[in-house]
Write a structure and sequence with these properties.
About 30% of the residues lie in helices and about 25% in strands. α2 packs across α3 and α4 runs antiparallel to α5. It has about 250 residues and is α+β, with helices and mostly antiparallel strands. The chain has one domain: Glutamine Phosphoribosylpyrophosphate, subunit 1, domain 1. The strands form 2 sheets. A 5-stranded antiparallel β-sheet has the order 8-1-2-9-10. A 5-stranded antiparallel β-sheet has the order 3-4-5-6-7.
Length: about 250
Amino acid sequence: MSKSEYDRSVGTWSPAGRLFQLEYAIAAIKLGTTAIGLVTDEGVLLIVEKKLANPLIVPKTIEKVFEIDHHLGAATAGLLADARMLVDHVRNEAQNHWFTYNEPLSVESAVNSIADLALDFADVTDGRRKKTMSRPFGVAMLVGGVNDDGTPAMWVTDPSGTCTQYTAAAIGSAQEGATALLAEQYKPGMSLAEAEVCGVGILRQMMEEKMTTVNVEVACIKTSTRKYHLYSAAEIEGVMNRLAAPLEY
């Protein structure tokens, strides 16, 4: 039987053991922009390409990097509306955890919360409550932050609910090429400044358009402060100006 016999329902398995609706959601991520994340001893760095489909769009209204909590951030690739829903969910989880336990939510717990919601879809109501979504979320996320013990961490989530920890990763349209360059250039002992040059340099090679301070977003969570920081245009320009200088590890 053809694929179409099994891709009309989000909960129907094919004889080959595949869920086509999930595969389609993962394919939607490839239509988005590219996001890169790197972990260093000094913190976690998140870098995202931001495409503006129309020159009349106000750039600041297109967000691809989000603050989850003071010590947590996320970069997204895929459908932006789906990303906002997942970000709002994990923000609520972080606040509820703080009010209940008087401690910040760990990076792993935040990712597990996102993964749980990513699988909360169905065609119909399950009898107790209406499902959040009637289809899988078409977005992947890089979730990074600093745990309460001061250790930086970054995880990757996708529509299947899979969450995996990485030291450096890429998602989005140029995932394969960016991942290959990260495997060559990323060094575990690099500083945050070196990671900025490495990550922004790789993203610049993957972008079809010329990189500017408008079409890229950069954020970091430093281990020293445990605070999320979104780079200003001047800070991004400073990193771009350092790209011409040779890297020394």
